[in-house]
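User: I'm putting together notes for a lab meeting next week and I want to include a structural view of one of the chains we've been expressing. I don't have a solved structure, so I'd like a prediction I can at least talk through. The sequence is below, exactly as it appears in our construct file.
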Amino acid sequence: MDDARRLFDGYDTGIRYADEHAGKLVAALGSLGVLDETAIVVTSDHGENQGELNVYADHHTADGITSRVPFLLSWPGLAPRVDPGFHYQVDLAATVVELAGGKVPESWDGRSVAASLKRGTPVSRDAVVVSQLAWTCQRSARWEDWMYLRTYHDGYHGWPAEMLFNLREDPHEQDDLAPKRSEIVAKGRQILSAWREDAMRRGRRDIDGRDPLDTVMGEGGPYHTRGELAKYCERLRATGRGEWAEKLLAAHPGEP
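Assistant: Thanks for the context. Below is the predicted structure for the 256-residue chain, given as structure tokens.
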């Protein structure tokens, strides 16, 4: 636990460091007298799991932690408020374009929330879908309080094919409800299926005309796992975790 504490404290220190320097930038804009006419956007590429789904200080998943990114926008003339709705990161770009007086191209996936920001009323997508094809092959649906995760290749993490979490009651994803709430799991499957069908219809394919998920799976799964299962299992056995080696071998028959 001492090692875990150092890890968490180091991460928090990094956040504080970034916050302090963002504050210095805002203060400099204020001292120059241009803060009220300056647009400021803060975002990032991903969140960071700190133990959720047994991932520490990394972002291997399509879960609620990895997909939760900063979406902070300060715009001249807009009052500060919090929007609790579901949005994609690409919605931020569409919003900035519209606030700046431009027109969002119809081909874009992002939806502007500029009108909502000006009215001061919240807006939300009914659901959002998140994909992870780097460290694992995983896709999730997020709606209401729920997050349904479908794992196609677990990147040797040992997850079941389907997981379900109530993120309002269980924000750190400790209690997998998939075995108990089949009706909610079915809803998650339906959201993923409809999203994929719409994406294919709109031409959101890779250069071979396929869903990128199918391409990565056809290549053998996440790149870092290819040809590594046997060596990884050797390490698990050598470090007292032989039961996980047997579980992974059973879950990935035929992988080298």
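A couple of points you could mention at the meeting. The domain at 39-225 is CATH 3.40.720.10 (Alkaline Phosphatase, subunit A). The mean pLDDT is 94.

User: Perfect, that's what I needed.
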